[in-house]
Amino acid sequence: MRLRYIRRKCGWALLTLWFVLTANFFLFRIMPGDPIGLLARSQRLSAEALAHQLTLFGLDRPLPLQYLIYLKQTLTGHLGVSIISGTDISTLIAGRIWPTVLLVGVGTGLAALVGVLIGIKGGWARGTSFDRSSLYGSLLLYATPEGWLGMLLLITFAGTLGWFPAGGYTSSSGDTAPQLGDIASHLFLPALTLTLGYIGSFVIVMRSSMIDVKDEDYITTARAKGLSDGQVRRRHAVPNAFLPSFTLIVLSVGFILGGAIVVETVFSWPGLGLLTYQAIKDQDYPVLQAVFLLSSLAVIMANLVADITYGFLDPRIEEV
Amino acid sequence: MSNEISDPTAASGAADNEGRRPERLLSRRQLTARRRRDSFTRNWGMFKANKQAMVGLGILVFFTVVAFLSPLLVSADAIDPAAASGPPNSPPSANYWLGTDSFGRSVLSLLIVGSRVSLLVGVTATIGAVLIGATVGLVSGYYGGTRIDTVLGTLTDWFLVIPWLVLAIVMAAILGPTLFNVILVIAVTSWAMTARIVRAQTLSVRRRPFIERARALGASDWSIITHHVLPNVFPVIFAQAVLTVAVAILSETTLAILGLGDPTAISWGRIIEEAFNAGSMANGYWWWMIPPGIAIICVTLAVTMCGYALEEIFNPKLRRRH
Questions:
Q1: How far apart are CA A61 and CA A67, in angstroms?
Q2: Res A94 pLDDT > 70
Q3: What is the residue-averaged pLDDT of chain A?
Q4: How far is CA B262 from CA A230, A284, B29, B66, B246, in A?
Q5: What is the pLDDT of residue A2?
Q6: In angstroms, rounded to a whole number, what is the distance separating the alpha carbons of residues B184 and A132?
Q7: What is the average per-residue pLDDT within B220-232?
């Protein structure tokens, strides 16, 4: 029974991957100008690199064949070369992926953890001043564009107060390996921006599921047994109210990746987001294509893991 | 479908059977109009009682009026970089309440003019997204369980799961920075939530007896969807549309900050981008960068407040949450 559920979820993930690959292929073909002309216009691309890209993706072949070649090359890890620098895109990405994983990981983790805790407290004590202020605060943060929020934090804490470095990943340059504390001080503001930018939805979702759970019969039963308020909340309310927030945490990986593009741009954080920003400026389409593919892959994997975990957390799911 | 036959169907399709007996026989059209009027009055009463929603509505009316009056409030010269007369980068003063930018343009004038594009993108992108989402949701829900539903449902799930903001950014970069493309990209990437909600609502409406009656009387699928399902699903679509405006305005800001906005159209997001690129942070030009962000927050917050209120009115299950 469980095996069938996992198999179905894996099948869906593969189907989604196919959709993303196909969308990616056609996105690249609807742009103005043909791919070959575009490649040829780039001065910095050497003749060999151009020829390599041409043969790798069969850009002179008919469209259906190009599609099959594209699928095969992408699935075997060949993402092509950057139009601007001629560098292999896999190499480009490998150099940029860890700063983004660090930033998005810390940002999502903190937003989810703090948001869920605030939501639990607020929803359980609905109508108190804590609940009201946390709800309004969340709505305010939800309405704030994260790029602008980042600029505001940068201008205040890095500019005026000078507490944090104004951008980048590390202050050390050249041969010396970056120190952990140094990276942390550079990470602080961009991670805070992402956390503040996305905490609101976690508070709102956790709060409303706590409110839903609060009136359930089993909560009344637990109270009637003589459990303290804290025990009822911890043992009976939170575990039952947590599932929607769990889904949100997983889904949020997708939109936090989008937000990270702006935040990395504002803070010159040398991750995939900054790479994307540079690719937008340079109209480096193969790089953009790879970024979309990679972030979709991250979201698909996160969803698959979540679906399977969900099946274990809530046995009723299997019957759906 | 003839009027006389479907008359009782339409009347009993009313969501509000408050036991009121019509004094005289009304035509189908009159009955429907009266029912709609009554339900509007009732919902408006509930909306008016919601303080946050009324504040939100007030803010929206204010910004809409400003956007419509902007050609009268600000002359074209005032925002033309070549014709601007003020001192560059000056902090707020009596002459320039919000200071000036690098070209010597008044930031207040930019803000007023920017409201036009920001609201236009927010509203038109939402209309696009809701048209796609509502159509997909209605068709998918009405043919629930069939192959069409499976295909449309999977498509909706895909668009919910993929990182839509990344897709919007990549699409905007590929299509090029024009106002139309910005609107198109936002519409194409933000319809899925509407589709899912409309589908769920359609599924529940479809099981109601008046749909079966309409079908028994020989109504076509098209006429059932447009005459019976849509009016019952419309409130949900409307509430969702209002909430989508917030998403659309925030997406426009993100695209603009990344330099993907129309370079010929001033929006709040583009003012932020220009301020950022002019080194506002290193030079401390806070008056240039902060106001457009506050304007975006005000409108997004206002729209969200109104949207939540509408959601609560139309979905009584949510009513006890606040």
A1: 10
A2: yes
A3: 83
A4: 54, 19, 46, 21, 20
A5: 74
A6: 37
A7: 88
Residue A190: which pLDDT band, with cuts at 50, 70 and 90? very high
DSSP SS3 for A81? strand
Can you read off the two tokens belonging to residue B275?
């301020």
Residue A299 distance to chain B (closest CA, Å)? 7
Q: Give me the total of CB pairs closer than 8 Å, taking one residue from chain A and one from chain B.
A: 154
DSSP structure string for A294-309: HHHHHHHHHHHHHHHH
Q: Which structure tokens are listed for B61?
A: 């009316």
Q: Please report the ipTM that was assigned to this predicted complex.
A: 0.84
Chain B contact present for A303, CB below 8 A: yes
Which ranges in B217-260 belong to alpha helices (H)? 221-224, 230-257
User: Rounded distance, CA B185 to CA A27, Å?
Assistant: 12
pLDDT tens string B120-177? 999 999 999 999 999 999 999 999 888 999 999 999 988 988 888 889 998 888 888 8
| Closest Cβ opposite residue A159 in set B165, B167, B284 | B284
- Please name every residue paired with B106 in a beta bridge, in sequence order, or none if there are none: B100
Is B272 within 8 Å of A288 when comparing Cβ atoms?
Answer: no
Would you say residue A33 has pLDDT above 80?
no
pLDDT at position A118, please?
95
Integer-rounded Cα Rg, in Å, for chain A is 24
The model's pTM = 0.85
Query: From CA B108, how far away is CA B96, in angstroms rounded?
Result: 8
| Domains in chain B: ranges and CATH | 51-321 (1.10.3720.10)
Confidence of residue A320 (pLDDT cuts 50, 70, 90): very low
Of the candidates B272, B286, B304, the beta carbon closest to that of A143 is on: B304
CA B104, CA B36: separation in Å to the nearest integer? Answer: 53
**If you search the block for the tokens 């975006």, which residue do you land on?**
B296
- Closest approach of A181 to chain B, Cα-based (Å): 24
The single residue listed with the structure tokens 């196909």 is: A22
Q: Tokens in use for A278?
A: 């540079």
pLDDT at B11 over 60: no
Q: Which residues of B touch A266 (CB under 8 A)?
A: 257, 276
How many H helices and E strands in chain A?
A: 13, 0
Distance from CA of B307 to the nearest CA of A (A): 12
What integer pLDDT is reported at residue B23 of this predicted model? 62
Write out residues 140-179 of B within 8 Å (CB-CB) of A. Answer: 154, 157-158, 160-171, 173-176
- Whether residues A257 and B163 touch (CB distance < 8 A) is answered with yes
Of the partner residues A144, A158, A280, the one whose CB lies closest to the CB of residue B260: A280
Average of per-residue pLDDT across A167-192: 74
The candidate with the shortest Cα–Cα distance to B65, out of B117, B123, B116, is B116
